[in-house]
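Reviewers of the previous submission asked for a worked example of the structure-prediction workflow described in the proposal, so we include one complete record here. The input consisted solely of the amino acid sequence. No template or homolog information was supplied to the procedure at any stage.
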Amino acid sequence: MPDDRGVLERVAAHPFVFGMSEQHIRLLADAAMRTRFEANQIVFREGEQANRFYVIEHGSVVLESNVESGETVVIDTIGDGDLIGWSWLFPPYVWHFTARATQPTAAIFFYGTVLREYCERAHTLGFELLKRMSEVMTRRLQLARRKLLESYAAH
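From that input alone, the workflow returned the following structure tokens.
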């Protein structure tokens, strides 16, 4: 049975926002909408403009990157409760990986351009987002490094 809760309630219930103030959650929800991806659908492509991020409610998305040999390397598999897309926070605002759904996936889409404006006005929101995104970035960059080194060593 589908969950008919509104965006605000879905955002508030997501682990990514745990510990955020009600005001911050409302700002996030104001820049959010529900979305779905089919299996093998590209969510975003490496090198393209990054203007959003997603929290995964249900499903699976892989982050991929191409290495010099042209081979595609899976950097990470993202599932329920996790987040994809931190490049919207940092100039030049381009994706560092390609994200592809591996099964039907339900997510919450957040407009990064709107959130950047909100963060300029509410610095505490920016700090909270940066803390959370930094955890994701650190984990992903370490995984990417390991995968690329493994790929390089195999050739």
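Helices lie at 7-13, 22-30, 112-121, 123-154. We consider this example representative of the routine output the project will generate in years two and three.
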